[in-house]
């Protein structure tokens, strides 16, 4: 019986040492993984830091562009930007929200068409995300809020200091939608 207690005690200590070694290995795994990834050039853990650096190196902080936001609705609905203007550095990613409300008592399909002023700014105004990319169906009284995520290209001519982004929201003709 005494021999069994000694054997159990030895086994317990061996298992405790194995558990401590496993904990130590797990704890050291993150710095080890980081070191291996850096050595191989696949530094996945700091990928977001690289994106941030790449984004920031393209921003022209010596210059401001005023972007004015305009909204026109061709029909009985409300459509407007949350702000009328914003100052951005060329290369800086920015977001503005637009709200839309269907005031009709029927379902409608609509889409927004953008326009730019001055005309030369159109090729330098890059939309990453925009509600104008899609057609939307809205129920009677339904409200939606949509983002426009954009970047003004640093190659925008130096004499352009203001860009007006204007959207016109049109009802899509020929859509047969059921009223509720």
UniProtKB/TrEMBL annotation:
Keywords: Copper, Membrane, Signal-anchor, Transmembrane, Transmembrane helix. It is a single-pass type II membrane protein. SUPFAM superfamilies: Ctag/Cox11. Gene3D superfamilies: Ctag/Cox11. The keyword Disulfide bond does not apply. The chain crosses the membrane at residues 12-33. One of its GO terms (cellular component) is plasma membrane. InterPro entries: CtaG/Cox11_dom_sf, Cyt_c_oxidase_assmbl_CtaG. GO terms for molecular function: copper ion binding. It is found in: Cell inner membrane. Its main location: membrane. It comes from the Bacteria. Exerts its effect at some terminal stage of cytochrome c oxidase synthesis, probably by being involved in the insertion of the copper B into subunit I. Belongs to the COX11/CtaG family. PANTHER family: CYTOCHROME C OXIDASE ASSEMBLY PROTEIN COX11, MITOCHONDRIAL-RELATED, CYTOCHROME C OXIDASE ASSEMBLY PROTEIN COX11-RELATED. This is Cytochrome c oxidase assembly protein CtaG. The lineage of its organism: Bacteria, Pseudomonadati, Pseudomonadota, Betaproteobacteria, Burkholderiales.
